[in-house]
Amino acid sequence: MSEQTDVVVVGLGPGGEHVAGTLAEAGLDVVAVEAELVGGECPYWGCVPSKMMIRAGNLLAEARRVPGIAGDASVRPDWGQVAARIRGEATDDWNDQVAADRLTGKGARLVRGFGRLTGPRQVTVDGRTFQARRGVVLATGSRPRIPPIPGLAETPYWTNRDAVAAKELPASLTVLGGGAIGVEIAQVFARFGCRVTVVEGQERLLSAEEPESGRLAADVLQAEGATVRTSVRAERVSHDGAMFTVHLGSGESVGAEQLLVATGRRVELAGLGVDAVGIDPAAAAVDTDGRMRVGDGLWAVGDITGRGAFTHVSMYQAQIAIRDILGFPGPDADYRALPRVVFTDPEIGAVGLTEQAARDRGLQVRTSLVPLSSATRGWIHKAGNEGFVKLVQDLDRGVLVGATSVGAAGGEVLYGLGVAVHAEVPVERLRNMIYAYPTFHRTVEAALAALG
Ligand SMILES: Cc1cc2nc3c(=O)[nH]c(=O)nc-3n(C[C@H](O)[C@H](O)[C@H](O)COP(=O)(O)OP(=O)(O)OC[C@H]3O[C@@H](n4cnc5c(N)ncnc54)[C@H](O)[C@@H]3O)c2cc1C
Ligand SMILES: NC(=O)c1ccc[n+]([C@@H]2O[C@H](COP(=O)([O-])OP(=O)(O)OC[C@H]3O[C@@H](n4cnc5c(N)ncnc54)[C@H](O)[C@@H]3O)[C@@H](O)[C@H]2O)c1
């Protein structure tokens, strides 16, 4: 016998929780299924605790910049305070009672367990089958992608979850993968005195972003004592009970007390039973249309859609799915102005297309790049003023199609650039705007002028 409901939401990360809570508040009967913690990766092992770690690392770095500008300061890093804050303030020691109460308070029925699709509009959780009149929303997120490097699986390597939960820092850490997770965590650990080596297979860090961003990230990490190895892959990993050794393709090896694997995320579809609704379980992601529909009575939001593993993407898609399920009109999903911020210091923000991506699409492109230190505010800022603004203009249409903003407030400066790309504001109009003095974002005005 199946239990009837209006909607089943499988996975309660940022996207799923938002869909389930909002639909329940709108009066629908909603079954919300979660295998681990209500809230998902972001609040317990992702964005929130990692940004708490970063806030702590940034404070140390700022204090170290005092000499020569404001006097003397000495800091004694204490990871124990960071670990305590992650437990006490961010994760409730990885207890989701508050989030679960918030969700059920909105009227959703929380069902704990692993959900599987067992037919059209049908989900089974530990022997209970739910039949959804309107349909099912898949929001099951992603998990770390562990590369098939010989030896790795037999070692006690870390993923982001272990790094976030660390009560003490290792004396040394090798980070496999120089993407967003690898670079953010490498900087924090280095600032707390851990000897860090980042090993990245591509020729630069943050390889999906502008080359200048990856190079700057490497320079900053190295200036803070980390070692950055690019264009080199791990061929074998071993652990002798105390130390990890990563054997590199170059013939060298890197030893460390701990190894963090941060080589991307993968979407797991086979366990979710997607073949029951005709989806290839081996696919890299679930295909969605502009209204987040996968098929009749089936929607997907978040990392599972492969449109960018970001909480803001998941929440944006959730809004669209909610509208569609409730029958409200609204624009289709539009990823032209997708913003990304890597929360290193300096922050590395980007929106829309990189120069290379724009050229690959056959656009007539003009770019400019202006260093932050050339603006008055950057010069005043002095220590910690690394950064730049890079613009990518589509010459035929006279609009920006992409921009990068790196700097002390790079993620915040990005907002204006995001508006420009999203609303397709003509470059000529942007040039004739007033930019407050002396802000970091005045670098945007200089970069617009440099477009010629
Ligand atoms: C270290 C780190 C730092 C990050 N920092 C940022 C950041 O600063 N900004 C940003 O935008 N993004 C960041 N992200 C990415 C962000 O965390 C994810 O994009 C976001 O959490 C994805 O949300 P989601 O809705 O897809 O679901 P997820 O958060 O992935 O949650 C999915 C949920 O579904 C559950 N689930 C899976 N399968 C089933 C099943 N079959 N049945 C029941 N439940 C199931 C899981 O237990 C999980 O709780 C970070 C990620 C990491 C790892
Ligand atoms: N600030 C943020 O918004 C933020 C922070 C952390 C994570 N995230 C999200 O989480 C996702 C996952 O982060 P991530 O850093 O794990 O993935 P990523 O895809 O950003 O980077 C993974 C890196 O690992 C490298 N790599 C892969 N296999 C390798 C190998 N065998 N040896 C050496 N290098 C290898 C890749 O070339 C790539 O540069 C990100 O794409 C991002 O969407 C966002």
TrEMBL record:
Positions bound to FAD: K51, G115, T140, G141, S142, D303
Keyword vocabulary terms for this entry: FAD, Flavoprotein, NAD, Nucleotide-binding, Pyruvate
Regions that span the bilayer: none
Cofactor annotation remark: Binds 1 FAD per subunit.
Cystine pairs: C42-C47
Record Pfam families: Pyr_redox_2, Pyr_redox_dim
Positions of the FAD/NAD(P)-binding domain: 6-318
Domain Pyridine nucleotide-disulphide oxidoreductase dimerisation, residue spans: 339-445
GO molecular function term, any single one: flavin adenine dinucleotide binding
Cofactor(s) named in the record: FAD
Positions annotated to bind NAD(+): G177, G178, G179, A180, I181, G182, V183, E184, E200, G264
InterPro entries xrefs: FAD/NAD-bd_sf (IPR036188), FAD/NAD-binding_dom (IPR023753), FAD/NAD-linked_Rdtase_dimer_sf (IPR016156), Pyr_nuc-diS_OxRdtase (IPR001100), Pyr_nucl-diS_OxRdtase_dimer (IPR004099)
Family membership noted in the UniProt record: Belongs to the class-I pyridine nucleotide-disulfide oxidoreductase family.
Record PANTHER family: MERCURIC REDUCTASE (PTHR43014)
Protein name according to UniProt: Pyruvate/2-oxoglutarate dehydrogenase complex, dihydrolipoamide dehydrogenase (E3) component
Lineage: Bacteria, Bacillati, Actinomycetota, Actinomycetes, Pseudonocardiales
